[in-house]
Amino acid sequence: MKFSVLASGSSGNALYIETDNTRLLVDAGLSGKQLGGRLAQIGVNPESLTAILVTHEHIDHVKGLGVMARRYQLPIYLNEATYQHLPSSVGDIPTSMLHFMDTGSSISIADIGVQSIPISHDAAEPMGFRFFEKDESMAIVTDLGYVNERIIQSLDGVHSLIWESNHDVNMLRMGSYPWNVKRRILGDTGHLSNEDSAIGLLEIIKGLGEQVYLAHLSQDNNLLELAHLTVKNMLEEAGLQVGKDIVLKETYPDRPTPLQNVKMQSAIVSA
Ligand SMILES: [Zn+2]
Ligand SMILES: [Zn+2]
Prior knowledge:
Elements: E1 2-7, E2 14-18, E3 23-26, H1 32-41, E4 51-53, H2 59-62, H3 65-72, E5 76-78, H4 80-84, E6 98-100, E7 106-109, E8 112-118, E9 127-133, E10 136-141, H5 149-154, E11 160-164, H6 169-174, H7 179-186, H8 194-204, E12 210-215, H9 224-237, E13 246-250, E14 260-261, H10 265-270
Helix pairs in contact: 8-9
The protein binds zinc ion (2 copies).
Residues 13, 58, 60-61, 143, 216 line the site of one zinc ion.
């Protein structure tokens, strides 16, 4: 299984995952044209996609959903509450293209096992996803207010993880956002701060060389270096060797990450 984070941040989110037989898009939060461009950058023809999965209905996750689904005749996997709350700009989607999955359930899309994970966020019924192929697994969990036991258990043994590190609490507090917006972001249905991101990782990561992509960084209340350094320092204070026990990677709003194998660092080193 390989993947690329095509876009990450409040301006748009999309993840691409492939196996030999299956090609998935998780969220489509850029325009159809931009998504086509990002896929081209990693050498993927959108005509070859198998399906689109949707985590939740916020526009930074569904902006190009309708266009992509209609243009390439792609089945959409999502829960019913998310479907009911899709913004009207997504446009009409033929019911034959809709595949409802219950939050917390597991399904298969061709050779990829998909487990949905309920998360707390100010959307109708938001989900994270974990993906399995053979003995490899990866997951995406962003857009969440806090980390609970269910999430930690659901991510047990994951090899590659796309994980929210949304904001620096001080930048958010000092920044220009109105108080109600600040309160929303900081609340239980908002977004994970850099510190909470690290605290969550310490519960999930076993130190076996897992790859963690810090994702959904706020463009106003965070900096790439600050997120990386805050998480790195907290992991190292807890005794993990960053770069060996855990590999921290970056994601970008304006470009895709290189297509990467789902593997732990130790497996890469010994291979
Ligand atoms: Zn959201
Ligand atoms: Zn989002």
